[in-house]
Structure prediction request, 95 residues.
Amino acid sequence: MPRCPHCRGKDIEWRQVEGRGHLASFTRVLHPFDKSRAHRLPYVVALVQFDGAPGVTLVTNLVGDGIGTLSIGQAVEAVFRTNTAGTTVVEFRTI
Ligand SMILES: [Zn+2]
Prediction:
């Protein structure tokens, strides 16, 4: 984001965080609202809050075998995937 989501300030910077967190919210997408993602159905969109970085939340996707039995507060860790455009994206899986 170009601005702080809390105060709209521009004085922001990148900071490293641990790759682990917990599930704050999630939804399962069953219908192809976005044609570019239709091949990934069903998929899970989640809000992950990072351990050791209070207030830092990321909108991401959950992947892996654990996505069928999710619960709020569940521990997750980052995984990296290269998409079809060659860009590396961060996703999370349950641990
Ligand atoms: Zn701020």
Summary: Residues 20-94 form one domain. The pocket of zinc ion is lined by residues 4, 6-7, 9 (CB under 6 Å). The chain has a mean pLDDT of 91. The CA atoms of residues 78 and 92 lie 4 Å apart.
